[in-house]
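Q: I'm writing up a methods section and want to include an example of the input and output format. Could you take the sequence below and give the corresponding predicted structure tokens, formatted cleanly so I can copy it straight into the document?
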Amino acid sequence: MTIAVLLTSAMGDALLALPLIQSIRAAKPGVRIAAIVSRPATVGFVRELYAAGALPIDEIIELPEHGPRTVSKAIARGRSLAKPRLETVVQTFSSHGRFADIVCLFSGSKRRAGFQSGILSKVSLNLRPRAIPANGKHRITLNLSLCDSLGVEKKFEGPDYLKLPKSSGTAVQGDYVMFSIFADRNLQGKRWPMESWAKLGQDIVKERLSVVVSGGEPDRAEAQQLVDAIGNGATNLAGTCNFVGLAGLMRGARMIVGTDGMPLHYADALGLRVVGLFGPTDPVEGGPYSAEVTQSVILQAPGEVTYTNLSIDRGIGEEGSKQMLGIHVEHVFEATMQALHSP
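A: Here is the clean output for your methods example:
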């Protein structure tokens, strides 16, 4: 018997499905669990977690993704899944959209559970319609709610639910604050202005701390521009380590400051305290899940916030950028220092 979990969204969303996968594994140790992944970046992320022993699955099924996601491609991908004879396909909350819906529908599985949106939710009666917004529930909570329909007990392994091996050291000496400044390139409205990051970095360096800027290889040039703007005391480590190495850097940091995205979820899954900057996305739905335990801090622009639909793969654009502009450097610096010195 094979239970396949659909992870067709971004890296952070795959991470937020981990407690559900852990619950399935704990309740059904003899069942084969497969992760169905499509985005190239997410494929690499899932493969590394699996190789490190942090993802309790037995198989990764990759759905090649080239060009736009069309209905015909979705049907073909779904039919390709009929060959492994999947018993159950689980569609996680963030494996959203028509492409994932059709893949799930044509998978040939005997049973389907999870969330769908749009017209297909009317023909797949065994799947829950996906409420947008999420009715004040976090995506981990929503994913864990599927345990009932799968007949497994919910299992959350604490704030450090991502069980990665601890490295022996980091490439950075002394006390440092890590910046996670980058967002999905389709969601630029989630980013904080570069000049704000530069001013925050300069203020932190004045406190006899250094700053490390993280990111992927495509972010390296822009990260270097920020490091140059901060000056002495800042280091560019974008694109220099894998995800296990990133975990080591995060564990070695005095504090992690970042915008809504995978690195923030990653640090939270390691049980680390963070300062998160949120604009057009709702931190209740997608912020640090263990914030109360780790005493993480969430900062938003003052006043009324209009949250953007998290289910879309289109840009969170101008309105999101305006909301991020409302987060002032002095407030982020104050919150960072307070969190850094709290027990």
